[in-house]
Model the fold of this input.
Amino acid sequence: MLIIFGASGDLTARKLVPALSNLFREGHLPDNFVVLGASRSDLSDEAFRKKVVLESGFLKERDLDQTKSRVKAFSEKIFYADLGKDYDTDYGKLAQRIGELDTKHNTEQNYIFYLSTPPSLYEAIAKNISDQGLANEKVGWKRLIVEKPFGYSLESAKALNEGLHRYFKESQIYRIDHYLGKETVQNLLVTRFANSIFEPLWNRNYIHHVEITNAESGGVEKRGGYYDKSGALRDMFQSHLLQIVALVVMEPPLSANADEIRNEKLKALKSLRIMNDHETLHRNTIRAQYVSSIIDGKKIPGYREEEGVDPESTTETYAAVKFFVDNWRWADVPFYVRTAKRMPTKVTEVVIHFKSPHHQIFKNSGMDSKDNKLIIRIQPDEGILIKFGVKVPGQGFIVERANLDFYYSSLTETHVMQAYERLLLDAMQGDATLYARADEVEAAWAFVDPILNYWKNGEGVKIYGYSAGVWGPANADDLLEGNSIWRNPGENLADDPGFCVIS
Ligand code: BG6
Done:
């Protein structure tokens, strides 16, 4: 039984129920599976089913091919419980409802509690669940899934971990980071550790620098209130991007077992060089905010004009950080990671820039700045691209850059699971590989905290502006050493930097 707290919220209708519906259609859910939504709205089972399934705008597109009876059968697995005015209340009635559903549907007291509420409520909900004996694993297993943001700082993340550990064991807690549910993020592990051609080169001897871009074309939409207190560094970098960094940086795990992988990720996160002095933080970080612009004749509001945002806000919608990894493999290799809203396109990719060949025999061949690159495209146009030099046919040795590519879309036979499908299924099966462990989350905060403190309290720290729809502030490239510049990717994996479609 999946019990969702905050079930009348956006995430349930937008992500969780569509993911469950796909799992149902693909035959991944057992017959006795049920969902119980719980929140503070007064809804009947019927009204809740209508909202999240039968009349939901989020299911239509994918479910066009389903027969109505299948949708109906799916909706009948969904129930609702009203918690009353407050989440911090006596869960006696809820426990009773859970008990009834358990008996009727024979769920064997195997429960997952999914907290899709503001994080300030996590501990209270965990306590109230536990007070009813529902965290107890004497009969059946009990798991707790929590959504990000997991903490607001290192201190608050530690407090939250301690709070949850009072009621649930670490092995029962699943901290969701939906980027880990993306096929292409998981494929980072396979690219590295299932091939013998990349790993020998995956180190300081051959890699010049690593670049990770996460760009979104959208603004803060309706989440201005939340975002203004968070900002790009907390919202994306601390969680999703540092998880990607960990997968790029980590040493080969002993096996694909959850703890082996998470131990290596933890080591990777702990090896990020923490920046403490203001001079280093000044040189290695850039924060910026989008300002209004006109795209395709349409006025795009600036961040400070968005609903729920303080008109004098200094919250960053663009964050770029340069850092080093202090270990044997990565010494002196710069990592550049940026994330932003209102960029020209929505794209996430990792670019491994290889060093120039150490003895250059085709010096005057146009080989300059055409070093090998491995581009791992997380989204969209998911795939992998290798850029390498080829001879231009004809006299002499003129070198041009060619592409060797793989696209996920060419695997037409395969149903590629969406992030939430994979993660929910893993949690049901007790596989925590793609969930963040307490120590990983704390290590990520330990790296991010000094940057946040510097941005908040440092003297004369600037927040730059960039017009909505461009690749960040004018000084964005200053972060990169030497002649390097950001690869500003287009919508398609093989697009070369310099152009993209804005609308
Ligand atoms: C969320 C952030 O975790 O990830 C959002 O809170 C962001 O601000 C979203 O838009 C991006 O996810 P995706 O999967 O669309 O890249």
